[in-house]
Amino acid sequence: MSKMTHTRNLLSLLCCLCVGVLSAQQHIKGIVKSKTDNSPMMGVSVVVKHKSVGGTTDFDGKYDLSGVAAADTLSFSYIGYKTLNVAVKGRKEINVSLEEEVTSLEAVTVSVGYRKERKTDLTGAVSVVKVDEMMSTAENNPMKALQGRVAGMQVTDNGGPAGKATIRIRGVGTLNNNDPLYIIDGVPTQGGMHELNSNDIESIQVLRDASAASIYGSRAANGVIVITTKKGKKGILKVDFDHYITTQSFHSRMKMLNSNEYAQVLWKANINKGNNPNDNPLGIYYDYTTDAQGNSTLKNLYYPREYFDKGGHAMLPSNTDWFKEITRMGVTESYNLSVTNGTEKGNYFLSLGYYQNDGLVKNTDFSRLSARINTDYKLLGDAITIGENFTINRTSEVEQPHNITEAAMRGVPFIPVRTKDGKNWGGPVNGLPDRQNPARLVNDNKDNRYSYWRLFGNAFINIQPIKDFNLRSNFGLDYGNLYKRALNHSYISGFMEEGKEKTFSFLEQSHWTKWNWANTATYDFTLGKARFETLAGMEMFAQSDINFAVQANNFALETPEYMWPSLGTGAITGRGDATGYKLMSYFGKVNIAYDNRYLASATIRYDGSSRFYKDNRWGTFPAFNLGWRLSQEAFMDNYRQTISELKLRFGWGQNGNQDIYNYAIYDIYNPYYGVTGDYIWSGTGIWNTSYDIEGKGTGQLASGVRRSRLGNKNLKWETTTQTNFGLDFGFFNNALYGSTEYYIKKTKDILVQPPYAGVKGEGADQWVNGAGMENKGWEVSLGYRNETSFGLHYDVNANVSTNKNKVTALPESVINAYGGNGKWDNILGRPYGSYYGYVADGLFRTQEELDQHPAQNGKGIGRIRYRDLNNDGVVNEDDRTWIGNPYPDFIYGLNVNLEYKGFDFTVFLQGVQNVDIINEVKKHTDFWSVDDTYSNKGRRLLDAFDPVTNPNSDIPSVAATNDNDEGRLSTYLVENGSYLKLRNVQLGYSLPQDLIEKIKLSKLRLYVSGQNLFTIKSKNFTGQDPENPNFGYPIPITFTMGLNASF
User: Fold this and answer.
1) DSSP letters of 753-797?
2) Cβ(63)–Cβ(44) under 8 Å?
3) Which pairing describes strands 96-98 and 25-34: parallel, antiparallel, or unpaired?
4) Long-range contacts, stretch 557-565, CB < 8 angstroms, 24+ apart
């Protein structure tokens, strides 16, 4: 073959290879979104690995590349997100979602003290809540969703439809209000979290120690919860819709006696007392025999054929389950719609939400309609930013009648709901206590409604004249308008009756206006290796409250449409009042970070309150923090693969407290114009000061006043000093992470109101300083997150915390009001609220035990034996001692999150260990005569002690009278309230992206969940729910189905 032929063949081969290579090049496009919220990401770098081919995503998150080979790999990267490498594999379109870089701590910022700070620079005790975990719980109150998720924070659910809860951070620090301060988008408030739409929340930080919270001033002594709501984001228009429906049922209920059991226990009570059981006032006839040894046996019993009410209507003996009569399956529905969009110059977030909870008790409900608008706009480039964050909501609520669950438990079972003819309500007969018919209470309560409008938010302007120097002015408004209507109807219920003259219509309206104006200047700069963040500011706050009410009596018609005060033919009475106070504050803060290793922070706050007299009006409250990031030291270089973050922290700070009556420094005199004392607000007539000269009771002379409060101009700030030691750590690229804290919290000059002192005369109530309290405790948080080789993402995190409380000081005039015997034994050095009473030492089971025991009034076989602690031969009040601690040894929570191929699964447990609670219900389950002899009792009485038939029982024998005073506070009533609850289990599934895009959705997730599915409690606890013992609104089991969709 000639040389020319070889050359021609080689050229042909090269041409074929070139054509093959060129034919392998392709055009590829796609969209990049954030895995967190599924929103398009602009500016993401998209490059072909090992080639100079690449680009960035546009405003809509789209990219378009040419010259990509089928075997190439695309690399997607963005600051703060994990880099994602995807093999092309011949595809022409690749859509991806980027995950936030959890290990990039340097880029994480949190809202602390009027500004954002880097999380790595924090030196105080600050918990950053994982909002996505919180949102897995179907709660209308976001604070309830935090239960067990933050170390050192205890949340107690009241169980009602409104979702109200009690929050305590690091225990009880004062004798007054212990609620934390909430900061929502820079505006302070101290309540109403059940009115906030959880779906609007972007982030939550909990500031637990004084060094972190002191910048917020006098209302921050009990901790601060900083909430930031969602803002608009740059990108395409995004619409989110969330919906769930929940059913509620009882976890358990107290087992009460039925009609036959009730009559049997009544018989036994009289037999034990030596009474003739057939002499009972209820007309129940017993057929029984008594043997030669005096032991009686019941053969049969007979109720009267019928009873009659006050109107002569027959009531047939029944077997009424009163608890069942007043309760139902509860249903909750929630709907939330939000719209967000943004550009380089401005962003907006709009939301609309509706929540409806039809409670477990009939005719109780809570509803909330909320709307929010958050916007921000840039002017003059980035020099000026203006914006606002406002929400308006309307809540409506029918609360349960007062103590309705207690009334249902005490309701006598043989009383019917209605009379035989259905015209009147069933009710008590002669011999029964005057207990109301629970079904009537629930029925008549259905129109007694609260309605509440609340406007909450802020408007701000931020000016940046030069780089890193910002001037910000933030004006916040919190306005509330409460409307309450209560109607009282006439009725006949057994021997109880209220006629038309007792009907009334009560209307009340209240207005609360709070405004807050904060002005701050921040300047950040660097000197060598040191970064400085400075803050200076002033803040003004004012609150004014107005309340007025009117009541009219005697209505001819009893319909809601008719019962307005102007139509009542009886007396019309009214009242009105107004109150308010003001705060003025100046503050400053400096943060220093040297070489990202050594950290320091100093804060000072100067607060003035109108609640104090001018000599004590102002208080100064400093704080400082130190931190050392050991993980950044050179000697840690060899351990960086193992130790990702290691930081020591120390903090010290003070907070003031002025949470007292607004006019406590003044003597208060009130005029009283009535002479009869019939007004619903004036109480008894002894307080009325008008003198009726003619003796006609007309009260025409309005000349009298009385002192209602004694002022104290020496009142001063209550001060809480807190010291905190902390350690933050992260191992294995922060896969294992956590923190631990130890704190000492001391409060002095606690503001307290001593008991009324008659020797000082009328209106001697007075506020004083003088009490002291101390809290100490540990807090530990620990978590581990990772991903398996087969794609399972998991995050397991837990927390546990302890708090030891003691009262360290009390004024002499107050000390005996908090437990003790009023002599040598008082509460000093013990936990606040400790229980003081007798030690129960089992039951008297034999005559020999009775004879050998010291003198004890009412003792007898089957009765509780109380210890003679001072060995004086007599059991009396001098034998009382400290028998219970209302604070747990520790509280804890455990959360498990799993994600796998579109599925997500969450399990959350929360518990309390070793806490003493007083089980008041036990007075009704274990005794016949301690409280309301003829009201219904618990079925535990069927297992009461009997020397012949049940000699091993620990429940006292049934007694017709309470001769042994067994309702006294003793260890018999104090029980272990420990529990572990399965708070939440949720399973969700997000449909594949390629499927939902066909129906124009960017996200569709379906889920099911259950809450409070089981409770493990102490064997010692005889009640139903240790979290909400006694007669509170029951905490339900709930089952939820829901969806999250984005367009």
Assistant:
1) -PPP-GGG-TT----EEEEEEEEEEEEEEEEEEEE-TTS-EEEEE
2) yes
3) parallel
4) 558/487, 558/489, 558/490, 558/503, 560/447, 560/487, 563/487, 563/503, 563/505, 564/505, 565/505, 565/507
Strand, coil or helix: 737: strand
- Whose tokens are 């004798």? That residue is 175
- Torsion, Cα 211 213 217 223, to 10 degrees, reads -120
Q: What is the C-alpha to C-alpha distance for residues 290 and 881, in angstroms, rounded to an integer?
A: 43
H/E stretch holding 148 reads none
Distance of alpha carbon 869 from alpha carbon 764, whole angstroms: 38
CB-CB contact of 415 with 495 (8 Å) = no
Half-sphere exposure of 590 (CA within 13 A, CB side): 8
* C-alpha to C-alpha distance for 999 and 894, rounded to whole angstroms: 38
Collapsed DSSP state (helix, strand, coil) of residue 212: helix
pLDDT averaged per 10 residues, the chain (length 1047):
45 42 66 80 82 78 88 81 85 88 56 79 83 77 82 80 81 84 89 83 87 82 89 84 93 88 94 92 93 90 92 93 93 94 90 94 93 94 92 91 87 94 92 88 91 95 93 96 92 90 91 95 93 95 95 92 91 90 95 93 95 94 94 88 92 91 86 48 41 46 67 92 94 92 94 61 74 94 91 92 93 78 82 94 94 94 96 94 94 94 93 94 89 88 94 94 93 96 93 85 92 92 87 84 92
How far apart, in Å, do the first and last CA atoms of the chain sit? 69
Burial class (CB in 10 A: 0-12, 13-18, 19+), 603: buried
Which of 253, 267, 252 lies closest to 944, judged by CA? 267
Rounded Cα distance between 325 and 448, Å, is 19
- The Cα–Cα gap between 646 and 630 comes to 6
Q: How far apart are CA 1042 and CA 65, in angstroms?
A: 39
Q: What are phi and psi of 430, to 5 degrees?
A: -55, 135
Within this chain, domains 24-98 and 108-235 share the same CATH topology? no
Q: Give the span between the Cα atoms of 555 and 552, in whole angstroms.
A: 9
245's tokens: 């429906």
**What is the fold, at CATH topology level, of the domain defined by 24-98?**
Immunoglobulin-like (2.60.40)
Separation between Cα atoms, residue 304 and residue 280, nearest integer Å = 12
Query: Is there a contact between 25 and 68 (Cβ–Cβ < 8 Å)?
Result: yes
Tokens standing for 571? Answer: 């007396």
Residues in the chain: 1047
- How far is the C-alpha of 156 from the C-alpha of 344, rounded, in Å? 44
3-state secondary structure of 922: helix
The CATH number fitting domain 108-235, selected from 2.170.130.10, 3.40.50.300, 3.10.580.10, 3.40.50.2300:
2.170.130.10
Can you tell me the distance from the alpha carbon of 228 to that of 201, in angstroms, rounded to the nearest whole number?
6
CB 821 within 8 A of CB 878: yes
What is the CB-side half-sphere exposure of residue 335 using CA atoms within 13 A? 5
| Amino acid type, 230 | K
State which amino acid sits at residue 699.
G
In a 3-state reduction of DSSP, which class is residue 627?
strand
Q: Are 150 and 206 in contact (CB under 8 A)?
A: yes
Two tokens, residue 522: 């921040």
Q: Return the SS3 of 680.
A: coil
List the domain boundaries for the chain. Answer: 24-98, 108-235
DSSP letter at 1037 equals E
- Strand-pair partners of 628: 598, 648
The closest alpha carbon to 974, from 932, 1016, 922, 1017, belongs to 922
Note the Cα 67 to chain centre separation in Å: 58
933: left (phi over 0), alpha (psi -120 to 50) or beta: alpha
**Residue that the structure tokens 């747990």 belong to:** 888
Backbone angles phi, psi at 220, to 5 degrees: -100, 10
In angstroms, the CA 309 to CA 420 distance is 11
Hey, what amino acid is at 314?
A
